[in-house]
Design a protein that fits this description.
The protein is α+β, with helices and mostly antiparallel strands. The chain folds into two domains: 37 residues; 90 residues, no CATH class. It has four helices and six strands, in the order αβαβαβββαβ. It has a six-stranded antiparallel beta sheet with strand order 3-1-2-5-4-6. A hairpin with a 5-residue loop joins strand 4 and strand 5.
């Protein structure tokens, strides 16, 4: 038969295996619950620099969530107003979707007012973005 030491070692091994399996199960259940959870409310914020630069940058999703403090600080340093709302929609020529998911709107008003051709060219060449004309 088995000695008491061998039985104790076997019992410890079985208990260890069961704990590992339960731990794995709870990790899988937790991941499953997180995947099924509805997303939080959509938030949008923007840096309105229309008066000074004829631009406004709009942020949302993970990019906003991960960078809000930096975006707010940088906006102020650039002479803009950081607000919990989208960009203004008056006098806007179009928007440029940047690789970061930022939407940069170009305006026909403000200190350095754009025309549509110049705004599109700046979007595509300088920012490597996707231009969408405002209709």
């Amino acid at each position: 038969m088995f000695s008491r030491t061998a039985l104790a070692a076997l019992a410890a091994l079985v208990a260890s295996h069961a704990t590992t399996q339960c731990s794995q199960c709870s990790k899988e259940e937790s991941a499953s619950r997180e995947a099924a959870a509805p997303p939080g409310p959509a938030r949008t914020a923007s840096c309105d620099r229309v008066p000074a630069m004829s631009l406004c940058s709009e942020y949302s999703g993970n990019y906003l969530a991960q960078n809000e403090a930096v975006l707010s600080s940088a906006c102020g340093k650039l002479g803009g107003a950081f607000v919990a709302a989208g960009c203004p929609n008056s006098a806007v020529l179009g928007s440029c979707e940047l690789p970061t998911t930022e939407l940069r709107a170009f305006y026909a008003s403000g200190a350095v007012a754009y025309d549509a051709a110049r705004a599109e060219k700046e979007c595509v060449t300088s920012y490597r973005g996707k231009w969408t004309a405002f209709r």
